[in-house]
Design goal:
disordered N terminus, binds magnesium ion, 28% helix, binds adenosine-5'-diphosphate, alpha/beta, Rossmann fold, globular
Length: 248
């Protein structure tokens, strides 16, 4: 016990050296960080590294996958030196494929987050989830896949209003004091927004941006925003290889 007057936010290391230094130890505990970038910029690899870092510290982790099948992800991870299988066998890590054609994924995720006691959660990727056609029923209290229902809806399928409510609901389900979350978001080539849904960037506590400079054959990582943290905004050169991402 004793008098502990420290107001400091608990930090959750990402495992990416240099990034953690820039963030004074890591992501704020309980925060949601958007990992944003065009295809192939390393978003999934950031997630692998983040989860693996937690597992090595014996933390319970959940990986929600929506755009790639679990078997595929596990193979890619292993190739980079992240062997998740022993942790899955041991019950420390859960990999879950979100089947967007089936049922109420909000309820699915909510149940997992509420009862799982996870320290680290990844949603990779938010994009197909946010683009899933939905109907809002009961004044938006329920969100259901559009093709399975004839229910009257408050918003037309795929409207920006529906997307906004849908994404806001997801972010609120993911937000939990004990859980520190990474959400990947695909941005179209050449886009100036930070996410394709253009809502999640306002709801996230932090934003990491991954970039490719193909002519220079260079990759970059930028901390664009991080709640409660003084950090450099400078894009840093990174390299992808065995062990994941390294700042150069
Ligand atoms: N073993 C590896 N060694 C070096 N680079 C790799 C390796 N595996 C993947 N990459 C690079 O990472 C990219 C994929 O990263 P990924 O995190 O899947 O991208 P995103 O999720 O942003 O689409 C590949 O296109 C490739 O350039
Ligand atoms: Mg990916």
């Amino acid at each position: 016990m004793g008098l502990k007057v420290s107001q400091q936010i608990e930090r959750i290391p990402t495992g990416i050296e240099g990034l953690d230094t820039n963030l004074h130890g890591g992501l704020p505990q309980g925060s949601i960080t958007l990992v944003s970038g065009t295809p192939g910029t390393g978003k999934t690899i950031v997630c692998f590294q983040y989860i693996f870092t937690g597992l090595k510290q014996n933390e319970k982790c959940l990986y929600l996958a929506s755009d790639e099948r679990v078997g595929n992800l596990l193979r890619q991870a292993k190739e980079l030196g992240f062997d998740f299988q022993p942790y899955i066998d041991q019950g420390l890590l859960t990999f879950k494929y979100l089947d967007l054609d089936r049922g109420d994924i909000h309820r699915d995720i909510e149940e997992d987050i509420r009862t799982g006691g996870y320290h680290r959660v990844v949603l990779d990727s938010l994009t197909p989830v946010s683009e899933m056609p939905v109907w809002m029923v009961n004044k938006g209290n329920e969100i259901i896949p559009s093709k399975d229902t004839f229910a009257t809806s408050s918003f037309p399928l795929g409207s920006s209003e529906a997307t906004r409510i849908h994404v806001r609901r997801l972010m609120s389900i993911l937000s939990n004091d004990m859980t520190t979350t990474l959400v990947t978001s695909e941005i179209p080539e050449g886009s100036r927004t930070l996410s394709r849904d253009s809502v999640s960037e306002f709801l996230a506590d932090g934003i990491l941006i991954l970039d490719l400079d193909t002519t220079m054959d260079r990759r970059k990582l930028t901390v664009r925003k991080m709640r409660g943290t003084r950090h450099s905004l400078k894009p840093r050169d990174i390299q992808i290889g065995f062990g994941g991402i390294k700042l150069l």
